[in-house]
Amino acid sequence: MIKKISSRVFFLIFIVVLSDTVLASAERIESKDEDKDGRKETRVFYEGSQITRVEVDKNGDGKPDQWVYFKSGIRNHSEIDADFDGKIDKWVIYDAKGVRRQTAKDTNHDGKPDEFLTFLKGRDLVLKEYDRNFDGRIDKRMLQRWDPNRKITTFINGRPGSIPNPSYLTLRREEDNNFDGKIDVYRERENKNPPADKIGKEIDSVPAKIQEKKNSAESDKKKNQTDGGKQRGSVENLVQNMNERHQW
To answer: In the predicted model, what is the mean pLDDT of residues 177-196?
Structure first.
C-alpha cells in the first residue's frame, strides 16, 4: 500500500514539474498600444518570462513592418520595411548591451544594403559607407565626428552673425568615383597635405560589419588581451581595425 502511494506521489510530482517546464517554455504573445493612439500596433513575443521578439505595425494595415529580435532578453538585431511595400529595406544591429551599433539601408530596392552607418563611439564618432553604383562594393567612406558647437554664418538684422547648427564634421574621406576599385579622392580635415600615395590605392570594398565578422575568430583568440585592465569589446576592436585598415 505504501509503495502504491509513493508511486502516485512521485507521478504527481513528475506531472507538476513537467507542466511547469512546458509552461515556462511556451510562447506567449502580448498586444500593446505603445504610441497611445487607441490601436494595439505592437505584439511582444515571450518564451516563458523572456522576450524573444517584437513586431510593430506602424502604418495600421494589419501587417507588421518592424521586427526586433532578442537574444537572452537583449535586443540583437531588427529588420524594417520603412516604405511599407512588403520588403525589408533597413537593418539594425545592436551590441551586447542592446545599444544600436550599425544600420544598413537598401536605397534602390534590390533587396541588398548599399548604405552603412557604424557607430564607433556612440553618436560621437561614426563611419559612413556607400555603394553608390549598387555593385555590392563600397566606393565611398567617411569618418565623422559629432560637433554640438557647430554654427552657420548668416545675417541677423542685417548684420553678420551665426546660429547654432549641431552636425557632423567629416574627419576623413575616401572615394572611388569612377568605380574602378581604386581611391581617386582622399581628404583629411586636419591635414592640408594628406598622403599622396592614397590616390590610386585599392579601396577596401567590404563594409565594416562584414569585416568585423571576419575578424571575430582572431578576436576570440585574444580574449585575454586587456586595455587598462579591461578586455577590449567588439566596438573598440572595430575602431582599432578601421585605423589599421585605413591608416586612420
So the answer is: 92
3-state secondary structure of 204: coil
In angstroms, how far apart are the furthest CA atoms of the chain? 104
Rounded Cα gap, residues 182 and 199, in angstroms: 8
Q: What is the Cα–Cα distance from 222 to 127, expressed in whole angstroms?
A: 25
How many whole angstroms separate alpha carbon 127 and alpha carbon 140? 11
User: What is the distance between the alpha carbons of residues 90 and 111, in angstroms, rounded to a whole number?
Assistant: 10
Contact of 70 with 76, CB cutoff 8 Å: yes
**Closest by CA position to 130, among listed 186, 184, 175:** 175
Rounded Cα gap, residues 16 and 22, in angstroms: 10
- For residue 105, the tally of other CB atoms under 10 A from its CB is 16
pLDDT, one tens digit per residue, over 94-143 is 999 999 999 999 999 999 999 999 999 999 999 999 999 999 999 999 99
pLDDT of 27 higher than 60: yes
State the Cα–Cα distance between residues 203 and 180, nearest whole angstrom. 9
CA distance 13 to 1: 19
Q: Which residues make Cβ contacts (< 8 Å) with residue 66, sequence separation at least 6?
A: 54, 55, 56, 58, 78, 79, 80, 81
